[in-house]
Specification:
7 strands, 20% helix, 135 residues
C-alpha cells in the first residue's frame, strides 16, 4: 500500500494499518519529524488504549494495555548506538510474544528484528501531507 494522507486522515490510516497488518511487529522508517510517533499514537488509540501514548525516547520502550487486555509495546531506538544495548531490555521477549510491537528507528537494531514484520515508510511533503508506504 502506498498513499498520501493529511493529519485529519490519521484515524483512517491507523485503522487500515491494523486491519491489513500481516504481522504484529511494525517497523516505522522515516526522518525526524515525518510523523512516526504521531501515527503510532493513533494506532495505539485505535487498538483501545485510553492512556496517551508518548515516545519512549529515553526509556526505549513504553508498555500500554488496551481495554481488551492486550499488551502493546512502543519502542524508540533513536538514541541506540550499538545493537547490543537493547539486549539489556530483553528485546527478544518483546518481539516474539505475539503482542503488538511498534518500533521507531528500527534501522538501529536491524540484525535483531524478526523477519516476519511490517515495514512502514513515512516521508513528509512540502504541503505537510505525508506519504506512507507499507511493505
Amino acid at each position: 500500500m502506498k498513499q498520501t494522507y493529511t493529519l485529519n486522515e490519521l484515524p483512517k490510516i491507523a485503522k487500515e494499518i491494523i486491519s491489513t497488518a500481516k504481522h504484529k511487529v511494525l517497523l516505522f522508517y522515516g526522518e525526524m519529524g515525518t510523523g512516526k510517533t504521531t501515527l503510532i499514537k493513533e494506532i495505539v488509540k485505535q487498538l483501545g488504549v485510553k492512556d496517551v501514548a508518548n515516545s519512549p525516547t529515553f526509556a526505549l520502550v513504553n508498555e500500554y494495555l488496551s481495554q481488551k487486555g492486550e499488551t502493546i509495546y512502543h519502542f524508540d531506538f533513536y538514541r541506540i548506538e550499538k545493537e547490543e544495548e537493547v539486549f539489556d531490555i530483553g528485546i527478544e521477549e518483546y518481539l516474539y510474544n505475539n503482542n503488538w510491537c511498534f518500533i521507531e528507528w528500527p534501522e538501529k537494531v536491524e540484525n535483531l528484528l524478526p523477519l516476519e514484520s511490517v515495514e512502514i515508510y513515512l516521508t513528509l511533503n512540502q504541503d505537510s501531507t505525508r506519504n506512507i508506504q507499507i511493505n
